[in-house]
Structure formats: C-alpha cells, structure tokens
Write a structure and sequence with these properties.
The complex is a heterodimer of chains A (148) and B (156). With 148 residues, chain A is of the alpha+beta class. Chain A has 4 helices and 3 strands. Chain A starts with 6 loop residues before the first helix and ends in a 6-residue tail after the last strand. In chain B, a hairpin with a 2-residue loop joins strand 8 and strand 9. Chain B has one domain. In chain B, 31% of the residues are buried. The chains are: A alpha+beta (148), B mainly beta (156).
C-alpha cells in the first residue's frame, strides 16, 4: 500500500485533532491514497461505535452489585493478612526450632546433680557439694571411726 | 533328615528378644586411698592423673591408687566393681535424661571389720544425674587411718 506522509495528519483530522484542517482537506481532495485511508478509518470508527454498549446497572440489580463489592472488599484483607503472616510464622518456627536444638544438643550440662543420697551407717550423715572443677561430691560424715 | 529338622526348628524358633533399651553406659571407676603422711606437699600415685582435679579439695597429702576399672553398665542392672576386700561399688543406670545425661544409682557397699560384727552395709547410696565426662566423687568412708575415695566418670 502506498504510504503518504500526510496519513498521520489525516488520522488526526478524522479524530478532529488536526492543527491544519483546511490543508488536510485540500490534500485529501488531491490524494487518492489518503482518501482511501480516511475511508478505512471512518469504517473502523463506525464499526466500533456500533458494538460499543455502555454498561448500565438497573435499579433492581444495584443492591446485589453493591453486596458483591462489599463481599470482595471484606474478604481481601483477610487473605492478605494471612499471606503476610506466613513469613512471620516461618521465622518464629525457625527461631523456636533453633532454640530447641541449641537447648538439647549444644547446652553443656553442669556438674552432676544429686537426686538422693543416704547412708546405712549409724550416727552418720551424707552431705553433697559441687566444686568449681565441676565435680560433685557425696560425702558420708561419721563421728565414730571404730565401727568401720 | 536330621539337618532338615535342625533347619526347620531354627526357622520355627521364636525370635530372640530385640534389644530396645538404651546401650550400656561406659563408666570409669578409680578407687583411691587418701591419707595424711608426715611430710609436706601433696603426692599423687601414678595412674591418678585423670582424677587429680577431683581430689584437690581433699585435706590429705597422699593419694594411692587402689583400683581402676572401665566398666560397661547396662540399664536397670547392677554392675559390681570390687574396690578392696571390704568395699564394693554397685552401679545401676536407671534412665537416659535430657542433654545426653544418665540417671545413675551408685551404692558403696562395705563390710564392717570382723571385730565390729562384719555386717554389710551401704555406706553410701546415692542417685545422680550426670552428663558424659562429668565426675562424681564418693568420700568419707574410713580406710586405714585415711579415707576411701571413689571417683566415677561417665564416658561419652
């Protein structure tokens, strides 16, 4: 198809936006290519105008329409909040798991803990203590040495 | 025929009881005779290097090694270590505890001197919760002008 340098001006002229409408009209009279282009543009515009139907909501449908908007408006924040909470929950789980692992495997227990201590020696008592070196001592203390 | 019967009996025999409990606990036991001798400075007999730190707070200057043993003590069973002709140690692991610790019952069993009746007695009966590498020291049991000291170390 022959391309005339006036075709862009013709398009603006058809849209009513040409800065020099008289000159375009004069050129159209002399240029068959631009006239053909103008016809195609008008055909296209008329076709679009024919199928265009404005969206209207009747009074009977309006309450349902508004209810749908309200439902979507109210539901969206909940999902949004849930998605935002997933990384937070994951971070909490990681920290919690790491803490449990550290507590169970990396924390070094202190000196042995004495759960119970007793003696069957008469007049004797048992005492326990833990030294700085981490040794736990169970000490039977008796007044009478001779019975041993 | 006999071989076939043996194979059949082996196949039909009830399976052995699987070991479901925790593995036995390795325990080092060192028995020491601690006493005072008329000299200055502390003296540790050879073989006591591993327990020297555990003995440092004791008011004696001489430490003689009586016996040392490394035993494998199964859970809920008594493992007996003979320390002297009158003293025996009973070790009984009771349960596994958090942090790889073990709940261990220890009894220092003593037979009294014949002139005092010779009756057996638990000089010490204690239950401790200890982790691997930790030491428990038993002391206070009189022995020939000194004390019998027992250092128990749980192995990893």
């Amino acid at each position: 198809m022959f391309e005339c340098r006036w075709m862009r001006n013709v398009e603006r002229w058809v849209d009513g936006e040409a800065s020099n409408p008289d000159a375009v009209a004069k050129h159209l009279a002399a240029c068959p290519a631009c006239r053909a282009h103008e016809r195609r543009l008008r055909t296209l515009r008329n076709g679009v105008a024919a199928v265009k139907q404005p969206e209207t909501i009747g009074d009977a449908r309006f309450p349902a329409f508004m209810e749908g908007i309200r439902e979507r408006r109210d539901r969206r924040p909940r999902w949004s909040l849930a998605w935002k909470l997933i990384p937070v929950a994951a971070a909490i789980l990681i920290v919690l798991g790491g803490s449990l692992y550290t507590y169970e495997y990396l924390v070094v227990p202190g000196p042995p803990v004495v759960e119970s201590a007793s003696t069957e020696i008469e007049d004797a008592a048992v005492t326990t203590y833990a030294s700085n070196s981490g040794v736990t001592t169970v000490w039977v203390v008796s007044r009478d040495n001779d019975v041993w | 025929m006999v071989a076939a019967l043996l194979v059949l009996s082996a196949l039909c025999a009830p399976p052995g009881t699987p070991s479901t409990g925790p593995p036995p606990v390795r325990v080092d036991v060192v028995a020491i005779h601690a006493l005072d001798e008329p000299r200055s400075g502390k003296q540790y007999e050879s073989g006591l290097e591993g327990v020297k730190a555990a003995l440092e707070d004791l008011p004696f200057n001489t430490y003689r090694r009586l016996d040392a043993a490394n035993v494998s003590a199964p859970f809920n069973e008594d493992t007996i270590v003979s320390l002297t002709d009158r003293h025996r140690l009973y070790l009984r692991p009771l349960s596994k505890e958090p942090h790889d610790q073990v709940r261990l019952n220890v009894r220092l069993h003593m037979t009294r001197k014949p002139e005092t009746g010779g009756a057996p007695v638990n000089a010490i009966n204690t239950t401790v919760i200890a982790g691997a590498g930790r030491q428990v020291k038993l002391r206070g049991v009189k022995l020939d002008q000194g004390e019998l000291v027992v250092v128990i170390t749980l192995q990893k």
